[in-house]
Amino acid sequence: MLKLLIVEDEPAVREALVRALETEGYDLEIAEDGAQALALMASSPADALVLDVMLPAVDGLEVARRLRAQGSDAPILMLTARGAVGDRVAWASVPGSYADALVAPVDRLVRVPDGVTLEVAAAAMLQGMTAHYLAHGTRETRRGDTALVHAAAGGVGLLIVQTLRDAGARVIGTCSTAEKEALARDAGAHEVIRYDRVDFADETRRLTDGRGVDVVYDGVGKATFDGSLRALRVRGLCVLYGQASGAVPPPLNSSMTPILPPWWI
User: Considering the entire predicted model, what is its pTM?
Assistant: First the structure.
């Protein structure tokens, strides 16, 4: 059962959210402010947060559709100056995207290329942009680099693997099941480490002849962070872009501190 943490200080909104979500079978926890939410997350992490909800609310941030109208006089329809009616477009981070019709800001719209389905375009917008900035923004991938990608069979993980492979990097992925291993390999991972079987940091060093990797992409957080540091080469980069398993403690409190050389801290 998916566990949701509702963070809402307005009683009426909070009660409406609880009524609506309970009928869907979610396991709910309630916090009235950020301090309560942090305390609850520390003791029993939720799968997702529900916050800053304005009722009536329409879900959705990412969608791909055909343009139904254009111009400033289009009532409650998708608005753009970039495309013609009938063009296929996708966007991310536009609240209310699951509505039947929507006015979308022009700077959020991206034309969907021929050969890409609307389903793929909608699913790839936010995760695809994340993979791109990780591989080409946070650090520019160079041919011959070796990268470790945690949760390599996840939505972002699969796209990072493909992006890194396309840029000429050697990609080592981590995952926990045989099915996920197959997905990561199909996406282009050169090696896949099952961290349910071996210590991924030790195995990473073995695969790199003791050198370590140039970069680690870690969206897991607390459960993998110390191992991610151990898997790096000297002056390598650990990119922490998510904390699915919980918040990473401050560096000076990390269990790695006693064995890290001075330039790591």
Answer: 0.71
